[in-house]
Protein: Triosephosphate isomerase
Amino acid sequence: MASMISTNCAQFSGLRRSSPTQSYSQHVNSHLRLVSSRRPRRSSSVVAMASSNKNGTKESITKLVSDLNDAKLEADVDVVVAPPFVYIDQVKNSLTDRIEIAAQNSWVGKGGAFTGEISVEQLKDIGCKWVVLGHSERRHVIGEDDQFIGKKAAYALSEGLGVIACIGEQLQEREAGKTFDVCFQQLKAYADAIPSWDNVVIAYEPVWAIGTGKVATPEQAQEVHAALRDWLKNSVSADVATKTRIIYGGSVNGSNCAELAKQEDIDGFLVGGASLKGPEFATIVNSVTSKKVAA
Structure:
């Protein structure tokens, strides 16, 4: 099934390199020192399940759904699961109403002769409430560009689906100090296309932290999330920056979720492999309590 949930920041240099004309990283570090629980809270966290299409069989998904139905989940967390297309109906018909269903992709416009694609209209017809767009594999394996993904998001929103809008940099981009440049460019493509941010959740997934053995620290993840929120404030509006949930997706598991969840600007998780294990996924969902304790 597919899934939607340390170095000191001042020493970490894997973001935009400093120069006389590029002082944004200094601004972000200053911003982080000012973060406190007094900032208005987003309405609730979001955890989405979204791993690759090759994962899952009818038997394994039946077991996973049973585990999720039996799990005790925090009430103020939005939980969304994104099964492979062929299993959406099975999951929808057997999963508790407590958890909503997302698709892992959708087509850019109204249905037509686009063999192999899935239309927004079809997703709505089978009960999907969300769609995951811009995932790293869609960008870097399938070859979808920023503008195409933005158009997809705009169409899905216009038809009433919520969008989990993925962004994130690759390892060579992180090492070249281009994290902010890449993420802001991807975010701008969404902003240029979508009519409203009301039903958008941003998912930051550092591609370099997925299956590479390199894991982002909570401080590194928070640094980027804070920068994304500042970008929304400066480029869209302060209201959108305050209300939009930004979730993290970089090798999240039951061991690291609590420390990540404590970070002020991390509002939930986009979960990969850990979403295939019902009890561990429940642990990730319930890590929202870490933020309550830290507040």
About this structure: The first helix runs from residue 24 to 34. The radius of gyration is 18 Å. The longest strand covers residues 77-82. The beta strands are 2-3, 45-49, 77-82, 100-103, 130-133, 162-167, 200-204, 245-248, 268-271.
